[in-house]
């Protein structure tokens, strides 16, 4: 829950109509897009002039979200993006904990601003850049926090089907369709309320998960073929090289969710998925775990990353094979149970 003095501060900041920029982390996922667009629709209803600015493109499988066509992509036109940020009188940063998660160019533009920031986020170790930091790792999604944020302001009656559709999306994607341990009775009660508001929950699941291209299925098949098991460490891993991705004509979002297959095997509690990105000169890594093994701590320690206990990410500037060898080498000194 939000602290009462934070609620008062937010109420004051929202007391008169404002130009408001709302942004998620780079490579935005379902929770990032759902939470920013949910908040966008809410702020519009309050009479503000909001705009969602994403650091880089969001995947096609989220392009049906209400008003996603109004979203501005900062790195597509840094000049326009910077102007939008400079025009903003208030900034909301959603679903991330440090400004560097917006990428180098957007981070620089954000750091130059002097207007107040409000953070809504569920990652560990939030940075101290906001006048209101609503940060709580016990929430399964930022979307659930936006719901609580709206309720905290006493504006729950404004939550309509459009807002609910956006927020339901992030609740579903970040909870692995209500299966991760962060899923609570409250999570289900909020989902129930959204269904009563008329969201088409079944259609949303289909749009999110039954919407793959043939290419994406072939990419999944290759990743499954590449899967290795290190049973002594209860660990599995897989990878896709840039060449493999190119051969299957990949597009953004095609690798989303593939990491979870590594955990779907019996007796495996830790999995990693490596994606080579030649454009950015990095290997992007996703980590997942079952139970108490903390992949957030692991990703921080070894791969300049972070996230949550059971889902985290990181990166490496070593070549793909060397990154995988480094990963294997860390296992000998990592307590996995
Ligand atoms: P994914 O593996 O789906 O990209 O990310 C899983 C979780 O870890 C998400 O909550 C995401 O925000 C976080 N995460 C992914 N990559 C990074 C990273 O490079 N740094 C940090 N701090 N968190 C990350
Ligand atoms: Mn999230």
From TrEMBL:
<feature type="domain" description="DHHA1">
    <location>
        <begin position="248"/>
        <end position="331"/>
    </location>
</feature>
<protein>
    <submittedName>
        <fullName>Bifunctional oligoribonuclease/PAP phosphatase NrnA</fullName>
    </submittedName>
</protein>
<dbReference type="InterPro" id="IPR003156">
    <property type="entry name" value="DHHA1_dom"/>
</dbReference>
<dbReference type="Pfam" id="PF02272">
    <property type="entry name" value="DHHA1"/>
</dbReference>
<dbReference type="Pfam" id="PF01368">
    <property type="entry name" value="DHH"/>
</dbReference>
<dbReference type="InterPro" id="IPR038763">
    <property type="entry name" value="DHH_sf"/>
</dbReference>
<feature type="domain" description="DDH">
    <location>
        <begin position="19"/>
        <end position="171"/>
    </location>
</feature>
<dbReference type="GO" id="GO:0003676">
    <property type="term" value="F:nucleic acid binding"/>
</dbReference>
<dbReference type="InterPro" id="IPR051319">
    <property type="entry name" value="Oligoribo/pAp-PDE_c-di-AMP_PDE"/>
</dbReference>
<dbReference type="InterPro" id="IPR001667">
    <property type="entry name" value="DDH_dom"/>
</dbReference>
């Amino acid at each position: 829950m939000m602290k009462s003095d934070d609620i008062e501060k937010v109420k004051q900041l929202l007391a008169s109509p404002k130009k408001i920029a709302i942004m998620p982390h780079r490579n935005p996922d379902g929770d990032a897009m759902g939470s920013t667009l949910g908040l966008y629709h809410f702020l519009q209803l309050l009479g503000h002039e909001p705009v969602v600015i994403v650091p880089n493109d969001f995947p096609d499988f989220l392009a049906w979200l209400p008003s996603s066509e109004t979203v501005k992509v900062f790195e597509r036109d840094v000049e326009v993006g910077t102007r939008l940020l400079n025009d903003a009188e208030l900034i909301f940063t959603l679903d991330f904990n440090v400004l560097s998660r917006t990428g180098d160019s957007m981070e620089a533009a954000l750091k130059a601003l002097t207007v107040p920031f409000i953070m809504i986020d569920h990652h560990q170790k939030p940075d101290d850049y906001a006048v209101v930091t609503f940060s709580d790792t016990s929430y399964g999604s930022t979307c659930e926090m936006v719901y609580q944020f709206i309720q905290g302001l006493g504006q729950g009656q404004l939550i309509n089907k459009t807002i609910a559709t956006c927020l339901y999306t992030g609740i579903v994607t970040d909870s692995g369709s209500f299966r991760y341990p962060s899923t609570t009775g409250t999570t289900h009660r909020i989902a129930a309320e959204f269904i009563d508001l008329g969201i088409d929950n079944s259609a949303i699941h289909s749009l999110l998960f039954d919407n793959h291209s043939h290419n994406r299925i072939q990419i999944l098949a290759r990743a499954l073929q590449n899967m290795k098991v290190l049973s002594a460490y209860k660990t599995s891993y897989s990878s896709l090289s840039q060449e493999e991705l190119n051969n299957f004509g990949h597009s953004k979002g095609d690798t989303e969710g593939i990491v979870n297959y590594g955990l779907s095997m019996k007796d495996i509690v830790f999995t990693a998925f490596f994606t080579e990105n030649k454009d950015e000169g990095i290997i992007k890594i996703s980590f997942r775990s079952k139970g108490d093994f903390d992949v957030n701590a692991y990703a921080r320690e070894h791969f300049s990353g972070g996230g949550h206990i059971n889902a985290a990410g990181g990166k490496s500037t070593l070549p793909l094979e060397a990154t995988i060898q480094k990963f294997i080498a860390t296992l000998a000194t990592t307590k996995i149970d």
